[in-house]
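[Meeting: bench + compute handoff]

Bench side (C.D.) handed over the final construct sequence. Compute side (W.E.) agreed to return the predicted structure before the next meeting so the bench team could plan truncations. Sequence as handed over:
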Amino acid sequence: MTPWRLALAGAFLLAALAPSAWASATPAGGAGQSIYLRGTLGSGAPLAATRESGGVGIIGADAACVNCHQHSGLGSREGRLSIPPVAAEYLFHSRAQNAGEPVLPYVEGVHGNRDPYTDATLARVIREGVDSEGRPLGFLMPRYALGDEDMAALIAYLKELSQRRVPGVTGTLLDFATIVTPDADPVKSHGMLDVLEHFFAEKNSFPFKPTPQMRTSGRTQYAKSMYMANRHWRLNVWTLTGPAATWGAQLDKRLAAEPVYAVLSGIGGSNWAPVHEFCERNAIPCLWPNVEVPVVAEQDFYPMYFSKGVLLEAQLIARTILGPDNHSAVDAVEQVYRADDSGGAAAQALAAELKGYGVAVHSTVLPRDARADRVTAAVRAAALHKNARGQALVLWLRPGDVASLREVPAGAGTVYLSGLMGGLEKSPLPEAWRERARMTYPFDLPDKRRVRLNYPLGWFTFRHIPLLDEQVQTDTYLACSLLADVLNHMADNFARPYLVEQLQDLLEHRLITGYYPHLTLAARQRFASKGGYLVRFRDTGGTALVAEGEWVVP
């Protein structure tokens, strides 16, 4: 191995960078898990290391192994740098292929031209930076101060990362679930399921036989040439019933009966938390659900969302009200929303954003089943307050309630409307309100995204899929195509954490991003699209929008 490769391998063998709470849904590793994921020893003291003798010290979370080798232990790529895997099956695997040994799942960065590690030589490289063949590694490899008990725990954890059996995966089949909560919009649910079912049927229609075993070129056991690992996809639809407090138990029961590899898409109403918690607790990737109120828990690992939904809209409104210097010209904010709808979480988020800046927030909460006349009365009263100097009105209302505003004068002052709840550019906002209203828009503008939508919309047309909700259905298609692309890249390695990590890497190179101008996910980020616009309607009628500035990331 050349010196630079020695340095690189050492630099990342068990190196460091990771933050707080990524332990919630990983193999039970005790002290080893804590060392690897959080940089905390079994005693609770911080992990400590130096780079070469007397070199720069690192400590705690900055010394944790996960930062370079990731949750899966399978390494990654940093530009031209290849970070090798540290899952035990790669560390302990023989230099040359033994007929009695299984072929390792393919990962980039694996080093096969060295002696396999043993527990003793692995402990030595962690403490002293000397590899399995006695060669010193480069200065970037930290030398870890680990006692025998903590060392044994860390090595045991690396062995747990090597478990080959993955639920929901067989030699010929990948099982997925999609989840529908009882408070989900039935029309949107139907549209989502239509896209999923067509995508799965088409994915399984290709006339090739699944080939689960790796085919190598013969030059090295790690070669990937001529490799295919085709499996059929099966969709399990998990429709929840009853109160949210029972959803976790329902999901546990479904999972026991129908083990799945990942949860794909799905749709909810104002409460997705039980589903999010189920996925994190069971270490199941939960990929791109259609939800207006996602769970903000950046320390979690397995759930991934396209956007923060109405919570992002609240941030956009707060940023506008406070201005660039956080000195608001608005003294108070009036909000109107229905109980048990997504607007409740959004209103709370906005109040929290404005707290501490001297902006008083008052909310009018309507019953979920309130009649239209009660809505108009509540908005009329709030608008009267808004008309006082230095006040703003925020409406977290659905299209039916927005249409009823034609009976209410808009008055003076600014009105903010949730685009996600109110219908986006198709919102039935009355003519008299259009001059005053500014709508949150957590997507790319219609004219800018049109080209990116040509393919999915054409795909729907060709397959006779009714367009019931363009945004939900194109998001669902995007979720499916992202999954298909990343599984092609992963070859035959189906470790669940590896799926999440590979999706994170794939997103920034994605050209077709649907409603979103761009998608990116870094470590400890769960929301791929991070900004939006404030827009107004260009005319008193029609759907044309004008942005009130550039794309804003709160």
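W.E. noted at the follow-up: The chain has a mean pLDDT of 86. C.D. will use this when planning the next construct.
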